[in-house]
Amino acid sequence: MVREDINREMEETQCPCHKTRERSAEEYTRLIHRLNRIEGQVRGIRGMVEKNAYCTDILVQVAAVNAALKAFNRELLEQHIKICVKRDMLAGKDEAIDELLSALQKLMK
Amino acid sequence: MVREDINREMEETQCPCHKTRERSAEEYTRLIHRLNRIEGQVRGIRGMVEKNAYCTDILVQVAAVNAALKAFNRELLEQHIKICVKRDMLAGKDEAIDELLSALQKLMK
Amino acid sequence: MVREDINREMEETQCPCHKTRERSAEEYTRLIHRLNRIEGQVRGIRGMVEKNAYCTDILVQVAAVNAALKAFNRELLEQHIKICVKRDMLAGKDEAIDELLSALQKLMK
Amino acid sequence: MVREDINREMEETQCPCHKTRERSAEEYTRLIHRLNRIEGQVRGIRGMVEKNAYCTDILVQVAAVNAALKAFNRELLEQHIKICVKRDMLAGKDEAIDELLSALQKLMK
Predict the structure, then answer these.
(1) pLDDT, tens only, A50-87
(2) Arithmetic mean of pLDDT, A98-104
(3) C73 and A108 in contact by Cβ < 8 A?
(4) Taking CB atoms and an 8 Å cutoff, what residues of chain D touch C10?
(5) Which of C10, C32, C60 sits opposite D46 (nearest CB)?
C-alpha cells in the first residue's frame, strides 16, 4: 500500500478530533528508516533465541535496541518541540506543554 | 524453517568455541512470544508514522516497547543467573561473573 | 547564610552574561525540600555502608534515590518548559529549544 | 563516631536475623568515597537552586549525579555477585538469586 492510500484510509476511518502531524519527506524517511532497522534488530534477536544463542550475547543485542529506540525518540522529540510545541505555544495553546511533560515522564521512567 | 533445521545449520556454520544455551521448551516459547509481540509493536509504530500520527501518541508507544524489552530482559536474566551463572560458579568458572557484570552494565546505561 | 546574602554574593561573583532564573517561593521551597531529602537519603546509604549493611538492602535504597531524583527533575522540567521555554519561544529565541533538547538527552541516557 | 563504635551499636540494636556483610578496607573506602562525592554533588545542586541557577544548568548536574549513582551501583553489585552470591550458591542457598534479581529489577526500572 503506498503512502497516499494509507493517508486517505486514515482520513476516512479516523474520528475528526484525532490529532495528526504531517512530517517533511526527510523527517518521514529518517523515522521510517530507524524503525525498519529496529524491527530488523528485534528479528535478529529472535533468530538468536531460535539458534540457542548464549544469554549474555542476547542481552548485549537488547541493549543495542534500547539505544536505537532512544535515538528514534530524540529525533521525534526534537521535531515535536521545534514544530508542534512551538506552534501551539505561539497560538496560546498551553495544553501542548502538559502533553509533552506527560510523554517525557513515560520515557524517563 | 523448523527449529531443528535452524539448530543443525547453526552447528555447521558456527565456530566450535561459540557458546550456546539450550533452553527449556517453556522458556523458549515465552521468549519467542515476547519478541513477536515487540516486533509487532515496532511495526505498529511504523504504521503510526505512516499515518501521520501525532508525536506524543508515538512517544507513548515507544515507552511501551521500552517496558516490553525490560520484561524480556528480566526473563532472560533470571534464567541466565539461575542456570548458567550457577552452573559455572559451581564448576569454578568465575569468568561467568565478569560476563554477567558486563551485560548488566550495558543494560543499566 | 540566608538566601538574600547568597543572592547578593552571586551577583558580585558571577559574570553578567550568566543566565539565572528567579523561582516563586513555592517552587523554591519544593525544590530545596526535595534536595534536602535526597541528601538525607544519600547520608542514610553511607550509614548503611558504615554499619556493614547487606548489599541488596543498599541497592534498594539507591533505587529509591534514583526515583527521588527523577521526581526532582520532573518538577524542575515542568516549570522550565512552562516558564522559560515558553517565554523564549514567544520572544523568538529558539536557542531555548536546543538547550532543552541537550538537557533531555543527558537525562534520558 | 568512629567505625568500631557504629559497628558495636549496630550489633546491640539490630535483630540477630538481620543480614550484614563485612567489606574489605579497600572496598569500604571506595564506597564511602563515592557516597561523599555524591552527597557533595547534591549539596552543590541545592546551592545552585539557592543562587537561582538556570534550569538546564541544574538538570545537567542532576544527570551527573545519576551517572555517579550508577558507578556506585556497579561497584557494589560487582562485589556482591563475586562474594555474596557466589558464596551462597556454593552453599546451596539459591534464595541469593531471587534477592539479586529483585534488586536488579528495582535498579533497571
Answers:
(1) 999 999 999 999 999 999 999 999 999 999 999 999 99
(2) 93
(3) yes
(4) 51-52
(5) C32
